[in-house]
Amino acid sequence: MKTFLVFRVFILPLRPILIEMMVSKKDRLIIRAATLFAENGCKAITMNDIANSMGVSKRTIYENFTDKASLLEACLHYFFGHQEFDIEQILQSSDHIIGTIFKMLENTSKLFFQLKFNFFNEVQKYYPEIYNNTVEIYKQKHLENTEKLLQKGIQDGIVRQDVNPLIIAVLISEVSVMVLQKDIFSGYGVHKKTAMHNCMSCITRGMFTEKGMQILDAHIEEYKKLKKL
Fold first, then answer.
1. 93-108 pLDDT tens trace
2. Domain ranges of the chain
3. Architecture of domain 94-228 in CATH?
4. Which residues contact 54 (CB under 8 A, 6 or more apart)?
């Protein structure tokens, strides 16, 4: 539960005194560093920047983290700890796999929109070991969750029998990276949200049965109504 609370502070900043009450000094360092890394990228931010931003000495940071790499890794675990908590809540609360898939995609999109463009590319380039130990592991978990959902969709008659769950799960994952992380449509004047919606509509409509299409259309109509509120 602590991981969830700390990351929520990062996503929805609270007054400093509330942060003092909720988390330890080490957690506050992670919160501040996570914010700076997200806004500026992991390459540009130094330990001096983090120390100055918090009004502490670099020694204070090094008492909790051996170097910038270990601090960055802790921040990534907080990012994904939040993601995993939210996905678990989605899996428990959704009535059918269509709503679950779209909520998972929306949750992932929110994370990418909060991060500096090419954030994960920087991590991969300058901290490859950390990237493999955090980002790649999370991507694999996300892939496995999506594949399981598609398998359940086939059992429930929502996804077509001839669909290969692994192939579609990989397709959804790679399209998400292509649109959200690499932002390949920006050069054509298309916003990431619009591109993501169009790509996922094409993928999902191609894999659903008639029953699945009826649920999808109802889900889209409900989503439109909620957006108008």
1. 877 888 888 888 888 8
2. 2-68, 94-228
3. Orthogonal Bundle (1.10)
4. 28, 29, 32
Q: Dig out the tokens for 215 from the structure.
A: 């649920």
The CATH H-level superfamily of 2-68 is Homeodomain-like (1.10.10.60)
Tell me 116's DSSP state.
Answer: P
- Give residue 79's identity as a one-letter amino acid code: F
Cβ neighbours of residue 93 closer than 8 Å, sequence gap 6 or more: none
Q: How far apart are CA 95 and CA 156, in angstroms?
A: 12
pLDDT reported for residue 94:
75
Give me the amino acid identity at 17: I
Cα distances from 157 to residues 68, 152, 163, 178, 219, in angstroms, run: 49, 9, 12, 30, 17
Check if the beta carbon of residue 205 is closer than 8 Å to that of residue 219: no
Residue found under tokens 């298309």? 190
* pLDDT tens per residue across span 23-64: 788 999 999 999 999 999 999 999 999 999 999 999 999 999
Question: Do residues 185 and 167 touch, judged by C-beta distance below 8 A?
Answer: no
